[in-house]
Amino acid sequence: MKRREFVRAFGYSSMMYPLVGSLPSMFVGPDMLNITILHTNDVHSRIEPFPADGGGRNAGKGGAARRATLIKDIREDVDNVLLLDAGDIFQGTPYFNFFGGELEFKLMDEMGYDAATIGNHDFDAGFEVLKERCEGASFDMLNCNYNLQDSPLQKVVEPYKIFKKGDLKIGVFGVGIGLSGLVPEKLYGDIEVLNPYESAERTATLLKEDKKCDLVICLSHLGYQYELPSYPSDVLMAASTRNIDIIIGGHTHTFLKEAKQFRNKDGEWVIINQVGWAGIMLGRIDVTIEPGKKSKCYTCKNEYLQNSVDNSIIKYK
Question: Exposed (0-12), middle (13-18) or buried (19+): which is 13, by Cβ within 10 Å?
Fold first, then answer.
């Protein structure tokens, strides 16, 4: 982000987290490293906006064209953008019933998604269809706690991916919810679900300590928080692990106006964000990192998609 744009973001954003070090030195330094993380979750095949008449409280909101327009505008303003999705891409409108997820993946390709994780509804057409969609996608599908050794998905799903954006090295990995009881067994086959916290910490530690990533992001489809404290969630994962900087969540359709911060088991801050469902919001987290140090500064501004539309952004194939 250019310095004047970061100054504007500092003045008007919902929040700023100076996690380590002093804010003034980070704010004025000429060599700050910046990344803008844009993200969605639980889009559920919502290709068009909710109808203006009969859409209820969501009338006129959302839609792939609006999302594409906003993503394009942001990419024109900032240098380094990472576009991510936290699962449940499929299921919810007739587009999925007719096209089996093909349109959803093509639109994500057109928007330039970098990576996504698997939600439980992404198995709704079966693992063979999910495999086919992943094979044709230009973005990476990530999960580290599904044992895919005996699954056709082994060839198309990776535990993590490292992205180079400017001078930043960013590790991204995925974590999925338990499938038994949520998905018919015949749709996910021989996939074994491993402990999400142990898998997440193991992968995050690999990325942070061995791969020397400046930032580690978890794409989680566990859900934000539950009344039952024993049920796996993003909040509990943050508290139970180390080396994760940001958790981008899904599954519980939780609308957060701004990201939340929680302490991990070493007492360090973890940022958690989730933007509801159906593509009604686009999540945004801007991160500024002081080179050679652990100092990080976060700003967050989640935006409802109900503004101008540029349909020329999307090229249907």
Answer: middle
Residue 175's CATH number: 3.60.21.10
Cβ count near 235 (within 10 Å): 20
pLDDT per residue over 134-146, tens digit each? 999 999 999 999 9
What the block records as the tokens of 103 is 């349109």
With respect to residue 312, please indicate whether it lies within any of the assigned structural domains. Answer: no
Contact in structure between 213 and 150 (CB atoms under 8 Å): no
Residue 42 covered by a domain: yes
Say if 17 falls within a structural domain: yes
Give CA–CA dist 209/26, Å, rounded: 23
Structural domain boundaries enclosing 79 = 3-307
Which string of DSSP letters, residue by residue, matches 121-143?
A: GGGTT-HHHHHHHHHT-SSEEE-
Secondary element (H or E) of residue 272: strand 269-273
On whether the CB atoms of residues 262 and 239 are closer than 8 A, the answer is yes
Sequence-separated (6 or more) residues with CB below 8 Å from residue 21: 290, 293, 294, 295
- C-alpha distances out from residue 195 to 50, 143, 173, 180, Å: 37, 12, 15, 14
Question: What are 4-48's pLDDT values in tens digits?
Answer: 443 333 333 334 444 333 333 444 455 789 999 999 999 999 999
Q: Considering the domain boundaries, does residue 53 fall inside one?
A: yes
**Helical pair 102-111 and 64-77, crossing angle rounded to 10 deg:** 20
